[in-house]
Amino acid sequence: MEDQVNRLVEKTWAKFQSIPSSERFLIAVSGIPGSGKTTLASTVTKRLNALYSGLHGKTSTPPIAGFVPMDGYHLTRAQLSAMPDPKHAHDRRGAEFTFDGDAFVALVRRVREPLTPESQTLYAPSFDHAVKDPVQDDIPIEPTTRILVFEGNYLSLDKEPWRTAAELMDELWFVDVDFETARKRLVPRHVKAGIAPTEEEADKRVRENDLVNGEEIVNKRLEVHEVIVSTDDEGWKPEAQ
User: Where does the Phosphoribulokinase/uridine kinase domain start and stop, copy by copy (predicted)?
Assistant: First the structure.
C-alpha cells in the first residue's frame, strides 16, 4: 500500500504542474465502506502538503492541498425523519439516497470556478459523530488550496447527481477491498462510534446496510483512473473507512 500511495502522490504532483494558476486539480476517492479510502485520501493530502512545504523550504507556507470528506453531505436526522418511511431511512443511513448529492455537486462547481485575486474562501460541511449530524460551513477551502482530494462512497457511482460530480473531477480513484475484510474492519468501528451497542448488532448492520451499499458501489461504478488495492501493510494501516 505504501508504494501505491507514493506513486499517487508523485503522479498528482506531476499533473498539478501542468495546470494554469487559475485552476484547481480535483481528485475523487471512492470505495465501499471499510475500504480504507479515508486514510488514503487524508494521507495523500498530507504528503502533497509536505512535498510543497519542502520545495519552498519552510513550514509556514499555506497548504496547497485540502481534504474534503463526503460525510458532511449526510442528510440530517430530521430530514430522514421527514421521509415517507422514517424507520427505513434511518436504518439505511449511509445509502446513496440518504446523502444530499445536489449540494455536493454545487460545491464542486464552485471550486471549479477560475481563481482570481478576488476569490474568497469557500466552506464545506463536516460531520459531527457525537451528535450524528452534519456541521455546516466547517471545512474552509482557501483560494490558496489548489489541489482538492474529495472522499466518499459514491464519488464514482454511475447515477445522478454523482455522475455529474465525477465528470467535474480530474482524477477518479477507487479503493478496492474484499467484502469480508471490509466487514471485519467495520464491526469494531461501529461499536466504537456508538452506531451499534454490541459486535453482534454491528455485524448485522454491516451485512444489512454497509455491504448492501457496497454492492451498489461496485456494480454501478464508473470507469476510474486508478484502482488501489487496500492492504493492511505494517507501515500503513488504513482506518476502517
Answer: 26-181
Side-chain-facing half-sphere of 183: CA atoms under 13 Å: 16
Residue 234: pLDDT above 60?
A: no
CA dist 23 → 115, 146, 163, 216, 221 (Å): 6, 7, 21, 33, 27
Could you tell me which of 90, 96, 94, 91 has the C-alpha nearest to residue 78? 90
Contacts of residue 231, defined as CB under 8 A and 6 or more positions apart, other chains included, come to 1
Tell me how far CA of residue 61 lies from CA of 18, 44, 64, in angstroms. Answer: 21, 18, 8
Give the single-character DSSP code of 121.
Answer: P
Helix 37-56 × helix 2-16 angle, to 10°: 50
- Does the pLDDT of residue 2 top 90, yes or no? no
- What does the pLDDT look like over 117-156, one tens digit per residue? 999 999 999 999 889 999 999 999 999 999 999 999 999 9
Helix, strand, coil tally for the chain in percent (to 5):
45, 20, 35
Distance, in Å, from the CA atom of 86 to the CA atom of 93, rounded to the nearest integer, reads 10
Average pLDDT over every residue of 44-50 = 96
Amino acid at 25: F
Q: Which three cell numbers stand for residue 224?
A: 476510474
- What is the chain's mean pLDDT, rounded? 93
Give the domains, in start order, of the chain with CATH numbers: 2-229 (3.40.50.300)
Q: Is the pTM of this model over 0.85?
A: yes
